[in-house]
Write a structure and sequence with these properties.
Distance between the termini: 50 Å
Helix content: 25-40%
Mean pLDDT: 78
Order of helices and strands: HHHHHHHHHHEEEEEEEEEEEEEEEE
Number of strands: 16
Shape: elongated
Largest sheet: 12 strands, antiparallel
Structural class: alpha+beta
Number of helices: 10
C-alpha cells in the first residue's frame, strides 16, 4: 500500500528546481525501498517540472516495469531511445520489458546490446532464456555460459546473475514455470551533463555597459539594497509636498563590527550571531524547519531590535524582488520575515556539507555575513561554472548545483566538495 497516497499533487506547478530535485530524490529513495507505487507518484510529480528530463523518464519507466505496467514502460523507454539510440541500459531494458511481456521481438534490442557490449552478462542471460523458451537449448546454454553459469558455487564471482544462469541451464522450464527474475538497469546521462558543467574557471571579464533601451530595463535580479533617491516615488508628489521618505533596511552596520536589526517589521536572525537586543523585542526560536536547521533561526518582532555579531565579518545586503535565492545559512545574519523560506533540497551532496542551504522567496532584504564584498557571476547554458563549495555564498535563477564526482584540479585545493553550476542564473561567491 502506498504510504503517501493521500498527498495532493499540483495541477500546474511553476518551475522550481529545488522541488524538482526533491521529488526526483524521493522517488529514487522509494525505489531503493521497493515502494514502486510511491516512486511512480514522485517521478510523475517531478515530470511536471521537467517533462523531458531523461533521468526522470528512465526512473519512471523502471517503476512502471516493477508495477507490471509494461506498455507504459515500453512507451517511455522507446521515447528515450530516440535521443539515446546507442544506450546499452535503455536497449537492455526495452528487451527485458518485451521479454517479460512475451513478445517475440525481444531479441532485437538485446542483440544490439551484445553488439555494443559483448560481455553484457544480463543480456546473455535474457537471450538465453528466450532461446530456451523457443527450444534452442544448445544456443541458450552458450549464452548461459557467457552469463557465468559455469562459475564455481560460492566463489567470489558467484553473484545473482551467475546463480540465475546456473539454475536456468540446469532445468527445462515446464509450462507455467515462473520466468527467472532479471532486473532492469538504471540509465544515467549525468556524465554527459557533467562534461559540460565542469569547465575550469577563467578570469571574469567585466561586461561592457549595455546601450539603454527605449523601454525601461528591468532591475537586476539581485542587487545590494540601497534606499531609492528622494525623487523616486510611486506617484509624482504634489507641488509643495515633500516626497515620502524611503523605508530604511532592517539590517544596518554599526561601529565595532555590530549589525543592528530593526524588528518592527519582523525578522529572522541566525541564533549564533545574536548578541543582544534593544527596546522591547520578543524573541522566539523558529520551529518551521526540521533536521539540521531546526531552531537554527530566531524570530524577532516588537518595537525594538537585535544586535548581531560575527567576528571578523561584515554586513552585505541583498534585496529580492519576488525572486528565489538559496543561501548558506551559516553565512547569514538574517532576513526579513516577509520572505518565505524552507530547506533547499537541491544539493545532491548534502552528506558532505554541514548544513543544507535555505531557499528564500519573495520581496525583502537578506543580510549576509561576509569577509569581503562578494562577487556575482552570471551562469548561462553556454557558460557553466565549477567552484569549490567553500566559495559558494548563494545562488538564484534556474540553475542546477551538482557534486563533481570525477577527478577535478579544484579538488586538490582542499576546499571540500567541488560543485558544478549549470543553467541560467547567477552565483554569489566570496573567498
Amino acid at each position: 500500500m502506498s504510504s503517501r497516497a493521500s498527498e495532493p499533487t499540483r495541477s500546474a506547478p511553476f518551475f522550481d528546481h529545488g522541488l524538482f530535485l526533491l521529488h526526483l530524490n524521493r522517488g529514487k529513495e522509494d525505489m531503493r525501498k521497493g515502494l514502486h507505487d510511491d516512486a511512480r507518484r514522485e517521478f510523475e510529480e517531478a515530470r511536471r517540472f521537467r517533462p523531458n528530463d531523461p533521468e526522470v523518464l528512465s526512473n519512471l519507466a523502471l517503476a512502471m516495469f516493477h508495477l507490471g505496467h509494461l506498455e507504459e514502460a515500453e512507451q517511455i523507454t522507446r521515447g528515450l531511445l530516440v535521443s539515446h539510440a546507442d544506450s546499452v541500459p535503455l536497449l537492455f531494458n526495452l528487451g527485458l520489458i518485451l521479454f517479460k511481456a512475451g513478445r517475440a521481438e525481444a531479441r532485437e534490442p538485446l542483440e544490439r546490446v551484445l553488439a555494443l557490449a559483448p560481455a553484457h552478462r544480463k543480456a546473455h542471460l535474457t537471450v538465453g532464456l528466450i532461446l530456451q523458451r523457443e527450444g534452442h537449448l544448445d544456443e541458450a546454454n552458450r549464452h548461459f555460459t557467457s552469463a557465468g553459469s559455469d562459475r564455481k558455487v560460492e566463489s567470489d564471482a558467484d553473484d545473482t546473475i551467475t546463480r540465475t544462469a546456473r539454475a536456468a541451464a540446469s532445468t527445462w522450464p515446464a509450462p507455467g514455470t515462473p520466468v527467472p527474475a532479471v532486473k532492469p538497469e538504471a540509465f544515467d546521462d549525468s556524465s554527459a551533463r557533467r562534461g559540460q558543467t565542469t569547465q575550469p574557471i577563467g578570469p571574469v571579464e567585466p561586461a561592457a555597459p549595455a546601450a539603454p533601451d527605449e523601454e525601461s530595463a528591468l532591475p537586476p535580479a539581485v542587487a545590494p539594497l540601497r534606499p531609492p533617491p528622494a525623487t523616486a516615488s510611486a506617484a509624482p508628489a504634489l507641488r509643495g509636498e515633500p516626497p515620502a521618505p524611503a523605508a530604511p533596511p532592517a539590517f544596518s552596520p554599526r561601529p565595532g563590527g555590530l549589525v543592528a536589526a530593526d524588528a518592527r517589521g519582523g525578522i529572522l536572525v541566525r541564533r549564533t550571531a545574536l548578541t543582544g537586543r534593544t527596546g522591547i523585542t520578543e524573541l522566539a526560536a523558529d520551529v518551521s524547519l526540521s533536521g539540521a536547521l531546526a531552531r537554527f533561526f530566531v524570530r524577532a518582532c516588537g518595537s525594538g531590535g537585535v544586535l548581531l555579531l560575527d567576528p571578523k565579518r561584515a554586513l552585505h545586503l541583498v534585496h529580492l524582488r519576488s525572486e528565489f535565492l538559496s543561501a548558506d545559512p551559516a553565512r547569514l545574519f538574517g532576513f526579513d520575515a516577509t520572505l518565505t523560506y524552507r530547506e533547499d533540497p537541491a544539493f545532491e551532496f548534502r552528506r558532505q556539507i554541514a548544513l543544507p542551504f535555505v531557499k528564500l522567496f519573495g520581496t525583502g532584504s537578506v543580510a549576509f555575513s561576509v569577509t569581503a564584498e562578494p562577487a556575482r557571476l552570471e551562469v548561462t547554458p553556454e557558460t557553466p561554472l565549477t567552484l569549490a563549495s567553500r566559495s559558494l555564498l548563494g545562488y538564484g535563477g534556474d540553475v542546477a548545483v551538482d557534486l563533481v564526482e570525477d577527478a577535478d584540479p579544484l579538488a586538490d585545493l582542499g576546499g571540500g566538495p567541488v560543485l558544478s553550476v549549470s543553467g541560467s542564473g547567477y552565483v554569489l561567491i566570496e573567498a
